[in-house]
Predict the structure.
Amino acid sequence: MALFGVMEMATAVDILSDLVVFIAPLWIAVIVGVVLGWAWKPKWADNLASIEPTSNNYYLPKLRLPSWAALGSTSGPHTDLSSFSVSTSSGAGSSSLQRNDGENEVSALVTEQDLKHLSMLVEEKDGGPAWIQMMDRSTPTMSYQAWRRDPETGPPQYRSRTVYEDATPELLRDFFWDDEYRLKWDDMLIHASTLQECPVTGTMMVHWVRKFPFFCSDREYIIGRRIWDAGQAYYCVTKGVPCPSMPRHNKPKRVDLYYSSWCIRPVKSRKDDQLTACEVLLFHHEDMGIPWEIAKLGVRQGMWGAVKKFDPALRIYKKERASGAPLSPCARSAKINTKITPEYLSSLENATNDIIETRNEDTSGKPIGRNIPKLLVFGGVIALACTVDQGLLTKALIFGVARRVANIGRRF
């Protein structure tokens, strides 16, 4: 029995040591695979840049994490913005393009179709997959819940509900629209400028550059945004829009598929059951060029750290506004919005229901968005297996991990 016990212990030690030997190259394989997946970009991906938005003003899936939860780290060199040829003022909210007395072409970038889609998201009637809850956190002045879902095509989508105590919808509306103030508290935003604006509808086209961790290049966004005032709620749409006059660069990389829209409305406070709190329902997805399954892991780890920065920034903003500080150009633009009635909004929702039913009947084919990141990771692992070790056992283990990584999407 003693001899058997010693042999059993020796066997366990041998197995453990072998596992340690094998685990190291496996981790290297995964890391190299991910790096290759980010770095390699096929030529056909560039051709997708010309794809027009769909009827929901979404771009079709491209090989491009939500910027509010981008893997946590913000270290890395700042982007040199001097190479942009479009004449934009460096101050947030400034506009270098001439405005007309009436509505101009920028108003066509964000339309009623976007309002309908956001309204259906708010009412959870858009016909998409069910939401899976990810998080439920709170502080004395804020509560936060988040959900995720994976559509058949396109990147993961996120929904969050944040309730701010002692805040009004108007304050939250201006706060989220105020790029000039965001530059002071959001350490990932390194540039914000207004390219064009409609003085009638308040529709804006803005240019953002966000700083990313050192292993990613910075990302730039051309965003169209507009606010609808439904009496007791503000519907704020922001999404990626085309801008042919703004040339593309290798750095920062442009994010074409971007959607980040929210509904702001008063709710009862958990302190006194009065309508002194404000709810923000946010719907967000984007495709930055990071494999989607890897991005989901990063979002899960970095989400709360990013979100909890909002509340202290809001409290300072509230004090500044109460002291009579002048409004920034963007905050002034937030007050220019399109007024609608709840009845009109309901009519849009009813019309959208018919559109969704028709689209669901026509939807067919297998998902294409997720297979590409898996292929890139798998290709990186194969390259490593052919160079790091010539042993068949190690290669078999590496290929096994690659297959597991490629199948992550089925379990998330």
